[in-house]
Automatic annotation (TrEMBL):
Keywords: Methyltransferase, S-adenosyl-L-methionine, Transferase, tRNA processing. GO terms for molecular function: tRNA (5-carboxymethoxyuridine(34)-5-O)-methyltransferase activity. S-adenosyl-L-methionine binds at residues 36, 59-60, 80, 122. This is tRNA 5-carboxymethoxyuridine methyltransferase. Gene3D superfamilies: Vaccinia Virus protein VP39 (3.40.50.150). HAMAP family: tRNA_methyltr_CmoM.
Length: 269
């Protein structure tokens, strides 16, 4: 019997080969994708200190974020293991100051060691078998004083949306994550805020800012139909995305993590 080829990488990560069309259509083709980009457009300048630093975009996907930074004067290096995603990113970013590396995050200490003053890693950790190790790798690439814009898929929001949709059995069994097989877009390692807090502390990263991305939109019974309602929804998302308790149930959690200028003092005996 021929074993089916696993879509997972040897490290157990879900590279997006075979998923590019579905990802592009279902995540960026509708209101949810539009909202995510509109919120990032407002939040990135509010949450990061941007001075045109070179940017390493890890798991850069189709290249939307790389384009945003390139248009604001940052020289961007987009690292992405999936050849299929890279083809689309190159098309999307034609004419921009972006260089491309076909490598996974785990190879970056060798392939692009930096150190980097600015790194973005959006919606990638949840597709990895070892997100904790990945955060340690990212921390090691940051220069002292460097900033990491980290966005992760929020496990607590995934539970709520499953309950809202009536998937009670799944929620009771706490079987929320996907397996990364076939063409499913349910991440294999959704994360909690507690994990990000703990793993940041382990790596001496300070959480400077946090926001929820789509704190309301994914729970609506009906998507907004008129342009005016889409504008209202964006206004509400922006108003409450950094307000407790709403940010905690954003579909994604967006962080600014900073590596302090000076290593923390060793405790004196
Ligand atoms: C949900 S997409 C996010 C893309 C983009 N950052 C965005 O925000 O739209 C996840 C991306 O992570 C990539 N990925 C999967 N495993 C990876 C790894 N080990 N290192 C770097 N990227 C990886 C996938 O190929 C895919 O392009």
């Amino acid at each position: 019997m021929i074993e089916p080829v696993s879509p997972l990488s040897p490290a157990g990560d879900r590279h997006f080969d075979g998923l590019a069309d579905k990802f592009s259509a279902s995540l960026y083709g509708g209101t949810r994708g539009e909202l995510r980009l509109a919120l990032l457009d407002r939040l990135l300048p509010e949450m990061l200190e941007l001075e045109g630093q070179p940017l390493l975009d890890v798991g850069g996907g189709l290249g939307q974020l790389a384009g945003w930074f390139a248009e604001r004067g940052h020289a961007v290096t987009l690292a992405e293991p999936s050849g299929e995603m890279l083809v689309r990113a190159r098309e999307h970013l034609a004419g921009h100051d972006v260089s491309f590396l076909q490598v996974p995050l785990q190879a970056l200490p060798e392939q692009a060691p930096g150190p980097w003053a600015l790194i973005a890693c959006h919606a990638v950790l949840e597709w990895l078998a070892d997100p904790r190790g990945a955060l340690a790798t990212l921390a090691g690439l940051l220069a002292p004083g460097g900033q990491l814009s980290l966005m992760v898929f929020n496990r607590d929001a995934l539970r709520l949306s499953n309950v809202v949709k009536g998937n009670l059995e799944k929620a009771v069994a706490d079987r929320l994550e996907g397996k990364g097989l076939r063409k499913r877009l349910t991440p294999i390692s959704p994360l909690t805020h507690g994990q990000v807090e703990a793993w940041s502390a382990e790596n001496d990263l300070v959480i400077r800012e946090v926001a929820g991305i789509r704190v309301f939109a994914d729970y609506l019974r009906q998507p907004p139909e008129s342009e005016a309602d889409r504008e209202r929804l964006l206004a509400l998302e922006h108003r409450y995305c950094r307000v407790d308790p709403h940010w905690r149930l954003g579909r994604y959690l967006l962080y600014t993590l900073e590596r302090p200028m000076h290593a923390p003092q060793e405790a004196t005996p």
